[in-house]
Amino acid sequence: MGLFDALDASGSALSAERLRMDVTAENLANAQSTRGANGTGPYKRKEVVLEQAGSSFADSLQAARGVRVAGIVEDPSPPRRVYDPGHPDADAQGYVTMPNVNTVTEMTDLIGASRAYEANVTAMQTAKSMFARTLDLLK
Amino acid sequence: MTLPIDPSIASSASEWAIPSVDDATASDGAGAGAVQGEGSGFGSMLANQLGKLEATQNEAADASQALATGQATDPEAVVMAVERARLSMQLASTLRNKAVEAVNDVFHTQV
Q1: Measuring CA to CA, how many Å separate A27 from each of A21, A30, B1?
Q2: Region for B39 from its dihedrals, namely left if φ exceeds 0, alpha if ψ lies in -120 to 50, beta otherwise
Q3: Cα B56 off chain centre by
Q4: pLDDT tens over chain A, length 139 residues
Q5: Cα B50–B54–B59 angle (5° rounding)?
Q6: Cα B81 to chain centroid, rounded
Q7: What's the predicted TM-score (pTM) here?
Q8: Which of A98, A103, B51, B106 could form an S-S bond across to A80 if both were Cys, CB 3.0 to 4.6 Å?
Q9: What angle do CA A77, A79, A85 make, to 5 degrees?
Q10: Do B87 and A128 touch (CB under 8 A)?
């Protein structure tokens, strides 16, 4: 148990929530992208997978370990099919394969990431003020 | 008329002489060794902690400079480094003030 364990845990959560925000922003930005980065099919919605930090036994004995990003995975749900014969990427039937991004879901993810970030900032502020109150004992 | 100096007086005078600091450390090896010993004792602990404090301050300065020049990719890491440096400095200065207070108490002892 170090002096700044709570701060480190909250700090790792801040980085993780900001990455969630980044990925959600990318999903929103590519909500209409009919061509993916590798040239095959439309953009696929991405999602951040988080896991508890620290895998060794020594780590498991510590109280505050924080969070880390396990990876960024693609959403396997099927893409949307929109009828738009004038679109350059439309198939023979006039349907365009759009990304599997739902703007409403992305907006709720955005709110969730923002609130989680706020919660971790509050936890960090509380840890700081507890530390300062302990130091006040010496005055 | 001069009196001859008795050799026994000269030899006994050394008992009243105040030993120099080197003599004190030589005769009181146990106490001096605790202060000068590497890796143990209050002095080395203090030096160790001050070194760590300086390291956190340098880390915070580097992180702030990286943020100011636009090279920092992770603003949370910068904030964490600065906060860690600030809290460490608060802890060190509070402990230092307490130690100075204790020394002043000793100096103000009525004799």
Answers
A1: 10, 5, 112
A2: left
A3: 19
A4: 567 888 888 999 999 999 999 999 999 999 999 988 877 789 999 999 999 887 666 666 666 678 999 999 999 999 999 999 999 989 999 999 999 999 999 999 999 999 999 999 999 999 999 999 998 888 7
A5: 150
A6: 25
A7: 0.71
A8: A98
A9: 170
A10: yes
Place of tokens 């061509």: A35
Nearest-CA distance from A46 to chain B in Å? Answer: 21
Q: How far apart are CA A97 and CA A95, in angstroms?
A: 7
Looking up tokens 């160790």 gives B48
Nearest-CB residue to B83 (from A18, A128, A139): A128
Nearest chain B Cα distance for residue A80, angstroms:
35
Which of left, alpha, beta for A92 (phi over 0: left; psi -120 to 50: alpha)?
alpha
Residue of A nearest to B95 (CA): A138
What value of ipTM does the predicted structure carry? Answer: 0.72
- From the list B79, B83, B98, the residue facing A138 with the nearest CB is B98
How far apart are alpha carbons B67 and B64 in whole angstroms?
5
